[in-house]
Amino acid sequence: MHMKRRLLALLLIFLLAPNVSAYQFQRNSVLIKINPNEELLSIVYYLAFGHDEFVLNREGYINDVKHWFWKYRNHRAVEILREYFKDAKTIPERDYRLFIIDAYLLQFSEPPKMERIYTEWQDQELDEIVDALREFSQDTNFMEFFRSHENYYNEDLEVYASAITLLPPDEFMEPYMNLTNVRFEFHFPYLVCIHGHSFREKVNETVIYGSGGMLPLVRRNPPKTYWGFLRAKDTIFGLPLNSVYVNNSEFDKLWILEFIYHELGHDLTTAKLNEYYGYKVKPLKYLEDTIEEDMPYLATYDIHFWSDTTMIYESFADAWAYFALSGINKDYAELSLQMEKAWGEFWIEDVVKLYKKYAKIAVENNRPLEEYIFNMLTELAHMVPESEAKALYEEKVPVTPLRALDDGVKEGEIIIVYGTQNPDKNGVDYDRETAEIVKDYLQRFYSQWMGEVKVEIKSDVEITKEDLEKDMILIGGPLSNKVVDQLDEDFPLRFVLSNGTWILEKNAEFENVRTFLITDQNIKEIEFAEKTYSSPFTSVIMAIRNPYREDNYIIWIAGADRYGTRKYKNPTYYLVSYQVYDGRVIEDGFYFSLRKPAL
């Protein structure tokens, strides 16, 4: 059945496409391609730095890269790329430099000539890199390699193309912007995970909107499918991702469309946001400041916080992606919206309301939507005034492991608590080893913080009354962990033993929990108490306010058995209040304020 669906999808793509090859697809004025310039950069990057945090696990392809290019590993292009990155001391700094050179390369035609097409952006240092890459492509006959590997690129291109046909940008954007002499281009690399970015150029009288680079940004939009998992890298800390995913091709398309329409949101709004920056955008700086006050570490490692107002630009792009996708899959769009709030964008629902209002007005008046950005900024300042920002933040940003771990830098410590109550000593040893793995990940996670964050492991019998008030990560269920057994009656989720089987059930006393179920077939919002889990493969990660001191947090990692507990051994990138995985489905939940448990 899956093979039949895939063949049908391919047939539809080819019927709709007047211009299609194994590395590019064109539908009307929309072009998608695995870009040779980006792949040239990717291969030279691999020769310079090996299989690092940015290189994807494409084993057969990498073997061919080594066979073809290894003798050129000391080429001038490789050396000049090493020089370009030598001052990038952290992974985010490398990420930033990589996306800058990637964006610059899109100013040029394909190898081997690589002639300049667009002239507005020129940089001497980057021109030297382009010259070296051009020379490398000629010396190595790069394009012969590229064309001989189109079968690899086609695996990704099929998914990108099927996403575009689901919501064609030229058709969706037409009511909201003047598309006379406009075309859309979306450029992707294959080997290296390069930070996605917008692409906006003008040549002669033609304007080009689109994107470059690759999704996902793991710490912004983590993968939830096997296809996404294979293409995801933690390009901030280089930590391995947990093996939690479903096989849902529809989700893959929506995931791609979210990235595409996010970047088109930048194309739609950036010019006007820049025009009004001094007297409309900059005064909204308090929005970003509010996030940074609660999550100062996020503001350190995430490049979107490296200037005062980038998050305002991001919110206009994110809200536009919601506006687009909500028309084809409301549940996916709502899930994404909750994750944007978890990233700190507590005002994003207000921007969505403004888009709905002014998109309608723009269409009625036959005017481009960008003409109303001024009005949107004016109204946003009234909807989210500085005096109410902190209260609105607490009301709208969910409790998450992300916030909990960021609180660790403010407190200066976090305690990992494993259980000793399991009658099977091997189980105790296994949970202690899991705690050690979590500690190793946390130490790597906190490595970019300038101050000290003490990560300590204690057993449940070593925990003091003072410890219980601190930020804690609890390992294991109520059978193994005494602290969990003490608290879980007041958790929103808890494991209960029923006829010899551990059931993960919901605490019906909790209200206002937004819950989303992702299966191989679909994604839908469900009632919080609708589903329980009896699978022996069930695992959960969850964050709550610490009932002993509510400005601190507890993260709970557990499974139906010790192996399920270790499923969430990397707790550092979750933008949900909880996630459940039973080997077949993923359930994401979001809550914003929970009642205080009775102690």
Brief overview, please?
This protein is of the alpha/beta class. Helices cover about 45% and strands about 15% of the residues. The model is unreliable at about 1-20 and about 595-599 (pLDDT under 50).
Keywords for this entry:
single chain, 17 strands, 599 residues, 6-stranded mixed beta sheet, 45% helix, alpha/beta
Q: What share of the residues does DSSP label as strand, in percent?
A: 15-25%
For the secondary structure, the number of strands is: 17
Radius of gyration: 25 Å
The strand order across the widest sheet is: 8-7-9-15-14-16-17-12-13
What value does the average pLDDT take? Answer: 93
The major sheet is characterized as: 9 strands, mixed
SS content category: alpha/beta
Q: In one word, what is the shape? A: globular
Helix fraction bin? 40-55%
Fold and architecture overview:
This protein has helices at residues 2-16, 36-49, 59-69, 76-85, 91-105, 124-140, 142-148, 150-166, 169-173, 226-230, 249-275, 277-281, 285-294, 298-301, 310-325, 330-342, 348-365, 373-383, 389-396, 401-411, 425-445, 482-487, 562-565, and strands spanning 19-20, 24-27, 30-34, 182-188, 197-203, 206-212, 413-418, 454-459, 472-475, 493-498, 501-506, 514-518, 523-526, 539-545, 553-559, 578-581, 586-590. With 599 residues, it is α/β, with parallel strands linked by helices. It has a nine-stranded mixed β-sheet with strand order 8-7-9-15-14-16-17-12-13. The chain has a six-stranded mixed β-sheet with strand order 1-2-3-4-6-5. Strands 10-11 form a two-stranded antiparallel ribbon. It is globular.
